[in-house]
Write a structure and sequence with these properties.
Layout lengths: L1 E5 L4 H12 L3 E5 L11 E6 L15 H22 L3 E10 L12 H20 L4 E5 L10 H6 L6 H8 L8 H11 L1
Parallel strand pairs: 1-2, 1-3, 3-4, 4-5
Helix pairs in contact: 1-6, 2-3
């Protein structure tokens, strides 16, 4: 089985890469902005793009930064999917790495949430248009990774600054990488 991971700079992507190798997968990884697909067909495509900044209330965010973050969170993974699509195997699975619980609000993370919501919306459409393939979104939960440094840099502009500070200092439990991998395996 062969997996292609796009957005390989994320810690979640690197951890999934390592665990897939242990389980006998052949894994190729490309950076989040690369549209160059390694030779060979894939069974699994993981799209792990993500950026939380800008973090602030919607009308206080710089609009060009906001649009750029939506691009990173939604347009880049969809562009990578389009580039990789011709190299899929029959019945291949596509997994987007999602963000927050879409049933709850995420104040001050509007660009991140908008991008991840776009991916959620695309899954239903892709499933109807290409029923011979699987399209999934993995919601890993709150994993202690470097992406939360963006919240710390935003400071009090971030609605959950105190919680992230506590989490990064070990005062609140987070989802471990092995648990994220189990969630991926359950999707497959």
């Amino acid at each position: 089985m062969r997996c292609l991971i796009a957005g390989s700079g994320s810690e979640i992507a690197r951890e999934l890469h390592a665990r897939l190798l242990v389980d006998g997968w052949e894994v190729d990884a490309v950076s989040g902005r690369s549209l160059t697909v390694p030779k060979g067909n894939w069974d699994l495509l993981i799209l792990a793009h993500g950026q939380m900044a800008p973090i602030d209330r919607f009308f206080e965010c710089d609009m060009s930064e906001w649009v750029g973050a939506v691009m990173i969170n939604a347009i880049y993974p969809l562009s990578c999917l389009r580039a990789a699509w011709p190299h899929r195997k029959p019945g291949a699975t596509v997994v987007f790495i999602g963000g927050p619980n879409m049933m709850r609000t995420s104040p001050t993370y509007t660009a991140y949430r908008a991008g991840k919501a776009m991916l959620e919306a695309m899954i239903g459409t892709l499933e109807v248009e290409y029923p011979e393939h699987k399209f999934k979104i993995l919601h890993p939960g709150v994993v202690k990774t470097k992406i939360h440094e963006q919240t710390l840099q935003a400071g009090r502009k971030a609605a959950n600054y105190e919680r992230v500070m506590k989490m990064m200092n070990g005062g609140e439990a987070t989802v471990r990488h092995d648990e994220v991998y189990l969630k991926l395996k359950a999707l497959l």
